[in-house]
Amino acid sequence: MPADAPSEFALPDGVHPFPHKHLTGIAGLQPWEIGFLLNEAEQWIALNRATAKHDDRLAGLTQINAFFENSTRTLLSFEIAGKRLGMDVINMHAAQSSVKKGETLLDTTATLNAMKPDVIVIRHDASGAVGLIADKVDCPVLNAGDGRHEHPTQALLDALTIRRRVGRINGTVVTICGDVLHSRVARSNILLLGTLGAEVRVVAPPTLLPPAVERMGVKAYTDFDAALEGAEVVMMLRLQLERMDGAFVPSPREYHHFYGLTRERLALAAKDALVMHPGPMNRGIEITSDVADDIQQSAITEQVEMGVAVRMACLDVLTRSRRGVEGWA
Ligand code: ASP
């Protein structure tokens, strides 16, 4: 926790820092539990920057990455994280699995569980699928993104990036722009940043804003310029075309005109505002290349770097009780 964090964010006396078996979402996490995971991640940043990148505290454990939906950075990041901690890491791609032969999700789950993994990392295109699987297996489950629901490690890595670059999360003005309706990244970030006291704004065309989004504690805008005023962090989202059934925006060109982050628009935000994007980016649609590649203001590659550290922390923390780590409930 940064020094300026209010005391309600500190771990209360006698409370377990992370009493959960799984990490299926940010919803329901206490501020100190989020802070604990972020603090745990800090130690891995230096290791990841060193030449020798091994800490074999999870040696002998088996990690299965079961990905039922495409991924580049999240899958790689979880694989690297597990390997740096010494685990045997196995990737299951649904496209090459019995899922294609019609096997049900629960049968696939039972098969994975019978192989006695120590942690399962799951990505699925159905919202809630990861929670369903978590109920059926013996080991901890980590959600690597389920439909429009949650992507908790993305929100954690975004928070770690903000905390390191801005110096705090509490009170920080964060504008999230784009396809909020279909984005699990937006949802997990809104939950996390709100829990840690940030002022969160969301901005999108009316068709891409969830109904009653203000109930999540955010301010909703349809005018990007207005939403940028005073923003210290500008988080851009990809148009999730694969989740759209119908036309939600008239054309990518028009979308860019109103909601694309250009250098001129960025000048409306706070001085030196941090630019973020979870990737993959649609250059020229939600963000221009000069903004995305700006070495001062863009934190996009740093987000990827923080992703490995955050995932190492989550894998370590979730497997502590099975490893009999002293003092761990
Ligand atoms: N990579 C992120 C996700 O899996 C964001 C995106 O796909 O746009 O949700």
UniProtKB/TrEMBL annotation:
Biological source species: Sphingomonas chungangi
GO terms, biological process: 'de novo' pyrimidine nucleobase biosynthetic process; 'de novo' UMP biosynthetic process; amino acid metabolic process
Gene3D superfamilies: Aspartate/ornithine carbamoyltransferase
Gene: pyrB
Name of the featured protein: Aspartate carbamoyltransferase
Pathway where this protein functions: Pyrimidine metabolism; UMP biosynthesis via de novo pathway; (S)-dihydroorotate from bicarbonate: step 2/3
Residues that coordinate or bind carbamoyl phosphate: R73, T74, R123, H151, Q154, G279, P280
Family the UniProt entry places it in: Belongs to the aspartate/ornithine carbamoyltransferase superfamily. ATCase family.
Aspartate/ornithine carbamoyltransferase Asp/Orn-binding domain segment(s): 171-317
